[in-house]
Specification:
The complex is a heterodimer of chains A (223) and B (784).
Chain A lengths: L1 E6 L6 H10 L3 E6 L10 E4 L19 H11 L4 E4 L1 H8 L6 E3 L7 E9 L14 E9 L3 E3 L2 H9 L3 E5 L11 E5 L5 E4 L18 H13 L1
Parallel strand pairs in A: 1-2, 1-3, 3-4, 4-11
Antiparallel strand pairs in A: 5-8, 6-7, 6-9, 9-10, 10-11
Chain B lengths: L11 H6 L14 H11 L5 H10 L2 H4 L4 H9 L9 E3 L6 E6 L2 E9 L1 H6 L1 H17 L4 E11 L7 H19 L3 E8 L8 E11 L14 E6 L9 H7 L18 H17 L4 E4 L4 H12 L3 E5 L12 H6 L5 E6 L4 H10 L4 E8 L4 E5 L2 E6 L1 H5 L15 H6 L13 H9 L8 H4 L10 E3 L6 E4 L7 E7 L2 H6 L1 H18 L3 E10 L6 H21 L3 E7 L3 E2 L2 E2 L3 E10 L16 E5 L10 H7 L11 H16 L5 E4 L4 H13 L3 E3 L2 H7 L3 H6 L6 E5 L4 H10 L4 E7 L3 E4 L3 E4 H8 L2 H8 L10 H10 L2
Helix pairs in contact in B: 5-20, 7-8, 7-10, 8-10, 10-13, 19-20, 19-22
The chains are: A alpha/beta (223), B alpha+beta (784).
Chain lengths: 223, 784
């Protein structure tokens, strides 16, 4: 099972995402922002970081990278894609997911071990979780507050597309404490927390991130 | 690119013809005899470009002219045995240590104090950027950063300007660069009010065979500048900022502070690593303080020939820059490589892949001079060593400060101490004090997880990162300094800083191997400060020799003072240790009930300079705790061996706030309580409960050991003559000191957390540095 991990200039957690894929039992395939094909991978992770420095809106430039020209149609066609943090921002900028991520309401970068509830388990990336399972995943960002108009938020809730929600005090001002969402089909997931930092005992708070990566391997086999 | 035409440059020929031209050597910070010496070296007056180079390279910051005669001790007191693991010592961009299995680790700590006071965000950000490039230039991949920070009083209005800016700058740069921040320090004292200390450490690793050095050798090899374009930022920043103190009536120095671009640095890191992997780099040097002046003269003087550079080829952000400004510019995120002509195309291909601009500026020559051209004109023609290494050396007068006798005589012996029933209250007061409280407001603004190799970070005793993902081999690093101790006795203070960092590394389970230091002091022109400096350096060198750990490099920062009042001597010491498997490292708090709590080391009545004296009485006087390096070494041996044998569940060193704070922090880490008795300690060491809890004696640690391993642990202690005492067990959710007090974890937490937030919330209005006459008032109020 081959899972591509895209490196944009300024990607930071690409190495971590590759490691997570390998620890889950998959083969990690490095993809480059300038690539014009996806090398036949079965799924793609857009990792965290500050693509192109994110001096404009986060993800606004990465959206125009050559690799996105092939990734966007593939995702629309059902390729499993997980956007983590900056990757989530890129998915929103690419209009593969609705809404936007804006500056944390407390105006600071924050790195915390965050409690979450997994609310949708029929996506390509969450099948190995139990419905409403509570987990601890690293959250670290400066612009992580999910924002959308009330109509969109109602639609996301109504269609069951809120994948993960923050528990406890809202860490960044996200509307309705949303930590992650999916498209209708469930192959595209955007997640502000970093499951790739929770895959190895002793290096991060536990192993709660691993099911995201095992889920997609199973989803691809089942597809 | 066509050469410049309109600009009238001062070239070598003209300098020779016009010996009597008046030159602004004094404005550039040179002394009259230094200027005379330059003329003597060159046999003529310097050109304006040469004058710029000499002035910046002979500044205190670059030349170490006041500190050199003292720093020699680090080399002289390093024995052959201490060099056993040393691959590269003092003098290169950073020292390199062999940690075994083919891995080499490099680390270094530096200061960015003055820029961070003027412009907290950019000053701190570029401090991180600079130290990371030092590590890159050794051939290593940077692994992690740490940041020891010191500010004025937490409740002072200007701290509300400086602290958030510095923290945001360290975070903004380091987070965007993708390096985990694994520790450091945060301390508050009025002596830093007008002069915060922003030190930054980076640690990196490489295979032993991949070490790179800064030398330009091989006639015909090319000199390549790559990275960001050169702009007007930081022109003279190093010499101007590091050599003067701040005066609110003076002109603003804001433009002298460099502006950082962490994205450019991240790309530069990956580009450099690809260049190293391709084997196309023959020599490499980062551009930091003194920019091109430093890089060209250092590379040339470390090589075996001369160098010719065409300055007009430097890509500029600001086309109006003069050649002198280009030579002095401290624009960030730039590197200089020496490349064989046959490998240039490969070099350029790697640079193109990362969209990094690279320009051939010149070549290595078979001559002996550094020659710099501006168009057709030769504007610099100097022996490179005379610029880079043969700067002036000063034997500054030094004298023991007159106030010291009175300060040392003013001990804590006469201060009222709390009765037994007041000890719980005392603990809560200490926990809520700025230097002991939870620093999470700071540390949560840093990414500690990126790259997935962080085994341990704040608030544990040392930062621990994995170097080898296959085997788990890795390193632990801790930085420490108690400036209050160093103020009372700089020799002992430096050794106590070393002892604490060494202990923190060992308590985490790693074998201490090497030292880097950042020596923050007042003006070297003040004989009292110079005496403090000499004492601290001697103390540190003697201490390193006794512990068998060499100093591999570091940095001196002078002129840290406001008006005539210097900061406390603050020799920040970083210790690096190695572990074969970092998954065995010890966390500072216990997770399970039923563990036996053991106290290693002995406790004496040592409260001078303590947190208690500061919090309860606002007192600083007397003598710091006794230094016992043999005891530190014994403790380290026991901890490293016990950790390797898997006998330790958690371990925490005792330092500020003594046993009371160590216990409270252990309880707060995972909300698992402790019940201890002080009876054994009181009778063995002849101390009362207050002293047992709050004394800051060295060479002590609190260790939690699973019941089945207690006998083996105690036997190990006996084998090494390590004093050990059973204190109690872990249980419940409170800290219970029998017959003394019981405080719930929630009560402890209420005191310990939110202190920094609350102080900043009281005054969040950003203030300009120049409005800070208040800073002077804060300083005066601090006395001493």
């Amino acid at each position: 099972m081959r899972v591509g991990v895209v490196t944009f200039p300024g990607s930071l957690d690409d190495h971590d995402a590759q490691r997570a894929v390998e620890l889950a039992g998959g083969e990690a395939v490095p993809l480059w922002h300038g690539d014009t094909d996806l090398g036949g991978v079965d799924a793609v992770v857009l990792p965290g970081g500050f693509s192109y420095g994110d001096y404009l809106r986060c993800g606004a430039i990465a959206r125009f990278a050559p690799v996105m020209d092939v990734l966007v149609p593939a995702a629309r066609g059902g390729l499993p894609v997980l956007g983590i943090c900056n990757g989530f921002q890129v998915l929103c900028e690419s209009h593969l997911l609705p809404g936007a991520l804006v500056r944390n309401d407390h105006q600071q970068f924050a790195c915390v071990d965050q409690r979450l509830r997994i609310e949708r388990v029929d996506t390509a990336w969450t099948g190995d979780f139990a419905q409403d399972e509570e987990v601890t995943i690293v959250l670290k960002n400066g612009e992580g507050a999910f924002m959308a108009d009330e109509h969109t938020l109602d639609a996301l809730e109504g269609e069951g597309r809120v994948v993960a929600r923050y528990l406890g005090p809202n860490p960044n001002g996200s509307r309705r404490a949303i930590a992650g969402i999916s498209n209708e089909r469930g192959n595209i997931v955007g997640l502000m927390p970093h499951p790739e930092h929770c895959v190895e005992e002793g290096y991060g708070p536990g192993l709660d991130g691993l099911p995201f990566f095992t889920s997609v391997l199973r989803a691809v086999v089942d597809a | 690119m066509s050469g410049p035409t309109a600009y009238q440059v001062d070239h070598v020929e003209r300098a020779a013809q016009t010996p009597d031209t008046t030159q602004p050597w004094a404005e550039l910070g040179l002394k009259e005899d230094e200027y005379a010496r330059i003329r003597e070296i060159l046999g003529r007056r310097p050109t304006s470009a040469e004058l710029a180079m000499y002035s910046v390279m002979w500044s205190e910051h670059c030349s170490y002219k006041s500190s050199k005669v003292h720093l020699r001790q680090f080399g002289e007191k390093t024995t052959a045995a201490m060099r056993e693991h040393l691959l590269v010592g003092i003098g290169e961009n950073a020292g390199v240590v062999d940690i075994g299995h083919g891995w080499a680790v490099t680390f270094k700590i530096e200061s960015h104090n003055h820029p961070s006071y003027i412009e907290p965000y950019q000053g701190a950000a570029t401090g991180v950027g600079g130290i990371v490039r030092d590590i890159m230039s050794m051939g290593a991949r940077p692994l992690a950063v740490m940041d020891p920070l010191r500010f004025g009083a937490l409740d002072h209005p200007d701290t509300a300007r400086v602290l958030p800016g510095v923290v945001a700058g360290v975070g903004g740069y380091g987070n965007c660069l993708g390096l985990p921040n694994i520790g450091g320090e945060i301390a508050f004292d009025p002596c830093y009010q007008g002069n915060p200390l922003v030190n930054a450490l980076c640690v990196g690793a490489m295979r032993v065979e991949d070490i790179h050095l800064a030398s330009a050798s091989g006639t015909g090899n090319l000199v390549v500048l790559f990275g960001a374009k050169t702009g007007g930022d930081g022109i003279g920043g190093v010499s101007v900022l590091a050599s003067e103190t701040f005066d609110s009536t003076g002109p603003t120095k804001r433009p002298a502070v460099q502006v950082g671009d962490p994205f450019a640095e991240k790309v530069l890191i990956e580009c450099c690593l690809d260049l190293y992997a391709a084997g196309v780099v023959a020599g490499i040097q980062d551009l930091g303080g003194a920019g091109l002046s430093c890089a060209t003269s250092e590379l040339a003087s470390n090589g075996d020939g001369g160098m010719r550079v065409h300055l007009d080829r430097v890509p500029l952000r600001d086309s109006s820059l003069s050649p002198e400004e280009i030579l002095m510019s401290e624009s960030q995120e730039r590197m200089m490589a020496i490349v064989e002509p046959a490998r240039l195309e490969e070099f350029m291909a790697v640079a193109r892949r990362w969209d990094v601009e690279a320009t051939v500026l010149g070549e290595v020559t078979d001559g002996s001079h550094l020659e710099i051209f501006w168009g057709e004109e030769l504007i610099v023609d100097v022996p490179p060593r005379s610029v880079a290494h043969d700067g002036p050396v000063y034997h500054r007068p030094l004298g023991r400060p007159a106030y010291l006798d009175a300060l040392q005589a003013d001990t804590t012996a006469g201060l009222p101490r709390p009765a037994t029933e007041g000890l719980g209250r005392t603990l809560l007061d200490v926990l809520a004090s700025p230097n002991v409280c939870d620093p999470a407001w700071v540390t949560r603004q840093y990414d500690r997880y990126v790259r997935g190799n962080t085994a341990q970070a704040m608030p544990d005793d040392a930062g621990v990162v994995r170097v080898d993902e296959e085997t788990g081999q890795g390193v632990a690093v801790a930085t420490d300094c108690n400036g209050r101790f160093a103020q009372l006795d700089p020799y002992a203070g430096a050794q106590l800083a070393l002892a604490e960092a060494y202990r923190n590394v060992a308590v985490s389970g790693a074998r201490p191997l090497a030292v880097s230091d950042c020596l923050n002091f007042g003006s070297p022109e003040d004989p009292g400060v110079m005496w403090q400096f000499a004492e601290a350096v001697t103390g540190l060198a003697d201490g390193c020799a006794q512990l068998g750990v060499p100093v591999t490099g570091g940095n001196v920062s002078f002129y840290n003072q406001t008006g005539d009042t210097p900061i406390h001597p603050t020799p920040v010491v970083a210790v690096l240790g190695a572990m074969d498997d970092v998954s065995r490292r010890n966390r500072s708090g216990w997770q399970d009930e039923g563990l036996t709590l053991l106290l290693l080391g002995t406790t004496a009545d040592e409260l001078d300079g303590s947190v208690w004296a500061q919090v309860a009485h606002g007192h600083l006087g007397g003598r710091p705790p006794r230094v016992d390096l043999a005891a530190e070494q014994r403790l380290a041996t026991v901890m490293v061996e016990a950790t390797a044998r898997g006998l330790v569940a958690a371990a925490h060193d005792l330092s500020e706030g003594g046993l009371a704070v160590a216990l409270a922090e252990g309880v707060l880490r995972h909300d698992v309580g402790a019940t201890v008795s002080l009876a054994g300690l009181r009778s063995r060491d002849g101390v009362d409960s207050f002293t047992a809890l709050f004394s800051e004696s060295g060479a002590r640690a609190l260790v939690a050991v699973p019941d089945p391993d207690v006998a083996a642990f105690e036997a190990l202690c006996e084998e090494h003559s390590q004093p050990v005492l059973r204190l109690g067990t872990t249980d419940g959710t409170s800290m219970h000191v029998e017959d003394t007090f019981e405080l719930g974890a929630s009560t402890l937490r209420e005191a310990h957390t939110g202190v920094i937030e609350a102080a900043l919330a009281r005054d969040v209005t950003p203030r300009h540095a120049a409005t800070g006459r208040a800073t002077g008032e804060g300083r005066r109020a601090s006395g001493s």
